[in-house]
Amino acid sequence: MFTNLFPNVDWDAMWLATQETLYMTAISTVLTFIIGLVLGVVLFLTSPHQLWANKIANWLTGAFVNVFRSIPFIILVILLIPFTKWLLGTMLGANAALPALVIGAAPFYARMVLIALREIDKGVIEASRSMGAKTWTIISKVLIPESLPALISGITVTAVALVGYTAMAGVIGAGGLGNLAFMDGFQRGRNDVTLMATILILVIVFIIQFIGDFFTAKIDKR
């Protein structure tokens, strides 16, 4: 049945491309979560009336986040070609896409972290400060636990966006389903290859969204 519907699909190549997309998405999501969380916490704590209130540090962090969040991803990939080649020695393959994926997504997630932290009841933070809690204790015991449902929801949205980013990175040789859809599908006029790659990308997105929604609902006790 599948052979009749998708006569030009090389299933081994399709499976390999799916693995590359999953690899790029998983690694970049983890790194984006860590870096974005750090940037978001710094943005929050250096804002006025917070523990590390500092206008210069807040402005510099905010400027970094805004600049990289505003650059269209495909342009960012091109701009980072020299850096990627210096770091990895090549611009081809799944690993070569990771720097652009993380640098493109982490600032976006940092803003979502900042929004989540701003939703925390100020009274909870003030109570912790009045009890003499240190900054790290407030971060680990108050800020992150209180905002965790929003943080998970945010990283789910970011992971879905990263799947799309991997497809764009694939167009310039980073591997994955985007690369297969463009090189083996679009350029050769094989619409069934492009369609199958698109279906698999949609399946990956739906699975990520389902997992994210499940854990968000599980943790959110409101």
What does this 3D model show about the protein?
The protein is mostly helical. It contains 10 helices and no strands. α3 (55-70) packs across α6, α7 (122-130) crosses α8 (135-171) and α9 packs antiparallel against α10. The longest helix has 37 residues, at 135-171. It is elongated. 36% of the residues are buried.
In short:
This protein has 222 residues and is an all-alpha fold.
What attributes does this structure have?
single chain; 222 residues; mainly alpha; 10 helices; 82% helix; elongated
Helix content: over 70%
Radius of gyration: 20 Å
Question: Can you write the helix and strand succession as a string?
Answer: HHHHHHHHHH
Shape, please?
elongated
Class from secondary-structure proportions: mainly alpha
Assembly classification: single chain
| Biggest sheet architecture | none
Specify the number of helices: 10
> Span from first to last CA?
48 Å
What are the segments in which pLDDT stays under 50 over at least 5 consecutive residues? none
- The average pLDDT is 88
Task: Work out the strand percent.
Answer: under 5%
The number of strands is: 0
